[in-house]
Design brief:
This protein is mostly helical and 81 residues long. The protein is built from two helices and no strands. It has one domain (11-72). The protein is 57% helix and 0% strand. The chain crosses the membrane at residues 17-35, 47-65.
């Protein structure tokens, strides 16, 4: 059977992907400055508020999930006993 290697297995391709990802991210952050918004609250007028809110929410979700894992985690041999 032939060894199948994916596109991301080559280090050069992964670097290209990261460069493209960050380039698109920067373009979207710049475009966000020019898109008309209809905010309901005063803090939503801040530039790139939606991006910052989404990032902080994602990080907070991961932190809460890690803490919750410690509370509800069972032992490895839970089903064996």
């Amino acid at each position: 059977m032939a060894d199948k290697t994916g596109w991301f297995d080559k280090p050069g391709n992964f670097k290209k992907f990261l460069r493209g990802f960050f380039a698109i991210l920067i373009v979207l952050l710049i475009v966000d400055l020019f898109v008309p918004k209809h905010p309901h609250f005063s803090w939503e007028y801040a530039p790139n508020f939606s991006a910052a809110y989404g990032f902080i929410s994602c990080v907070l979700l991961v932190v809460v999930a890690r803490g919750l894992r410690r509370i509800v985690m069972r032992k490895e041999d839970y089903y064996d006993s």
